[in-house]
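Teaching assistant's notes for section 4

Start the section by putting this record on the projector. Ask students to predict, before seeing the second block, whether Transcriptional activator protein ExaE will look compact or extended. Collect guesses on the board.
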Amino acid sequence: MTGVLIVDDHPVILQGFRRVVEDAGVAMIVEAGDPVSGYRLFHRIRPQVAVVDLTFRGSGLAGLALIKRMRALEPRARILAFSMHRDPIIAARALEAGAIGYVFKDSPVPDFLAAFDAVREGRPYLPHLLATQIAGIGAMPEPSRYDALNAREIQVSILLREGRSYRFIADNLSIGYRTVVNTCASIRKKLGARTQAELLKMIIAVEDLESQG
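Reveal the predicted structure now:
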C-alpha cells in the first residue's frame, strides 16, 4: 500500500488537496473524478490512504457505496471521508460504510492535516462537535428505524428538514419528481409515519436532538 488516492469531482478541490498534501510531504498522489474510476484506481494501486468525497453530481451520495466497496476489497483500507455535509446521520453512514475518519471540506488546513495524519496512521478522526452529535444519534429511541434509511432517503430527509419542496429536491438531486414522491413514501413506511406531516415532525425531532449534543 503506497501513495494517496483522492476521489472528488471538483477540479478546484483536487488542486487544493494536491497542494496541501504535497506540502505535507506526500510524493505520490492519484486523482479520480468519479466513483467508478476511483474504485478502479483503488483496486490497482491499493493506496495508503483513500480520501473520498461523498456526493457526486447526478449520483447523490455515491461515495458511501464506494467506501463500502473499498473496505470489502481491502479490509485494512484507511479511508477518510471528505465532505461538505455536516449532518451527523450522513457522517455516521460514512463510518458504517468503512471510513475511519470524517472531515469537512471547509475545515482549516491544520484541521484537515490532523484528520489526514490520523487516518494515515490508522487512527479514527472526527471533529469534536460531530462526534458528540453522532453519539446523540446512537442514544435516540428506536435507532434501528433511522438505520434502515438508505443513502438517497437520508439525502431527501435532510432536504425535507430544511423545508425544501419536492420540486427543489428533484432538481437539486437530479432525479425525477416521481422519484422524490416514492422516496418520501418509503421513508414514511420505514419510520412508521402515517402522514407527511407526521414524518416532518419526526425529522425535526431528530434535528432538535442533534442540536442538544
